[in-house]
Specification:
The structure is a homodimer.
Chain A lengths: L4 H10 L7 H14 L1 H17 L1 E2 L6 E2 L5 H4 L1 H6 L1 E5 L2 H10 L5 E4 L17 H10 L4 E4 L5 H16 L3 E4 L15 H9 L7
Parallel strand pairs in A: 3-4, 3-5, 5-6
Antiparallel strand pairs in A: 1-2
The structure holds zinc ion (2 copies).
Chain lengths: 201, 201
Amino acid sequence: MQTSPLLESLMESLRCLPGVGPKSAQRMAFQLLQRDRSGGMRLAQALTRAMSEIGHCKDCHTFTEQDICTICANPRRQQNGQICVVESPADIHAIEQTGQFGGRYFVLMGHLSPLDGIGPNDIGLDRLEHRLERETIQEVILATNPTVEGEATANYIAELCGQYGVDASRIAHGVPMGGELEMVDGTTLSHSLAGRQKIKF
Amino acid sequence: MQTSPLLESLMESLRCLPGVGPKSAQRMAFQLLQRDRSGGMRLAQALTRAMSEIGHCKDCHTFTEQDICTICANPRRQQNGQICVVESPADIHAIEQTGQFGGRYFVLMGHLSPLDGIGPNDIGLDRLEHRLERETIQEVILATNPTVEGEATANYIAELCGQYGVDASRIAHGVPMGGELEMVDGTTLSHSLAGRQKIKF
Ligand SMILES: [Zn+2]
Ligand SMILES: [Zn+2]
């Protein structure tokens, strides 16, 4: 668009958003200019504050602008004694939406990946160990992703828990609820068979 | 996400962008926080400047932060004597990309729509009339959309041009190049037949 350097710069900047190509960037820029300039200004302010003020929770390492996030600071969640280990802050969001977990979290911001030089301390396991040592924790629930790296990371943390006499558990993997058996991949189905549980009457 | 009000506010604000739902907003926010904070800050600045500084060109009404946009201010384009009338600034972009047009534009920012109370002056036709009167214009090329409203708007402007002795033309509509005839809708095909041109040897 040769009519406006500022418009070109806006379209270019919008492309830092995942999934936004030249066409969507153009549509977004025109939409904001034509119909929602106040929305665009609010977005600019939200971005500025989020990018500059959001850091990591000292306890669980998730994104927060506070020292300790609201989940970690909640006395009820502290008393619960369970810590759920996840790879990313988005996983917390997914688990919170189930309403099935009342403990606290620990966010690794990744997983062990020796080939990429990512060792235990790079994903904060020194801080997790410190918590296992210092706090009264009943159970560590390992909710890393069901990938090779996620499994290896879960195993490593389970051993760490063992050293401090803390129970470790792994979330169940298998056929998704509501899914059709024939649509599920073989690895998942193997996991599902191996992880079968006796039906109690 | 109960861990950060600023993060929630960022996700909410991202939804002012067209095509961005709760899931994409979350993915965008996490992506920026985790991997591209400087991109997020640049986007915030581009948004702030674009939303507050971009107005409309006094001559063609397209988006620009200048009084007169760079296309209208270009002496070569002024000498060309052609004005292409389009419904939106995005149409200018599309036509510029063909490299086939060396004149100036006039952006209606919509089309005539009597049922919605949108009359000639609401789409700037008083300003277009003023230009027809004052400037030396050889041809007005009507590139409004091939919709009922777009056609009606083109016809209205063609009559206006007639009053000032200025030639008006309508861009051709028909089967898209590279398209397959059997995939084209009936209205387009009718247009294509009616608009047939004699092959000259
Ligand atoms: Zn926390
Ligand atoms: Zn202009």
